[in-house]
Amino acid sequence: VQLQAYGGGLVQAGGSLRLSCAASGLFISKYRVGWFRRYPGQEREIVAQTSWKGNFYSDSVKGRATLSRDNAKNTVYRQMNSLKFEDTAVYYCAADGRNSFSTPPVADEYDYWGQGTLVTVSS
Predict the structure, then answer these.
(1) Residues 63-121: tens digit of each pLDDT
(2) Cα distances (Å, whole numbers) of residue 105 to 34, 72, 85, 101
């Protein structure tokens, strides 16, 4: 199983970015997928999740983020608008197949992780 997160980069505050999480070795349509971010020296925190329960967004991104799936491409996307300086972080996507999980989602309940992709928002 491999997850590849990509799409990060440098963007000005107020701009938009779309991150992608491409999966191989599993059918992403059967898994919940989460996006986490990590600030330097801190633990990973949930940003958004898509699952059979629907989409979850953390308060920090609610109204600015949208998740979508393309099952044909085995990929989940996270569109982020109105980016803020505090959105600067390394972003990770993760997948998990369990049916029961915590709300808000926690990193310990994800089995598969992609490498991080850095998003830098210039003020």
Answers:
(1) 999 999 999 999 999 999 999 999 999 999 999 999 999 999 999 999 999 999 999 99
(2) 8, 26, 24, 7
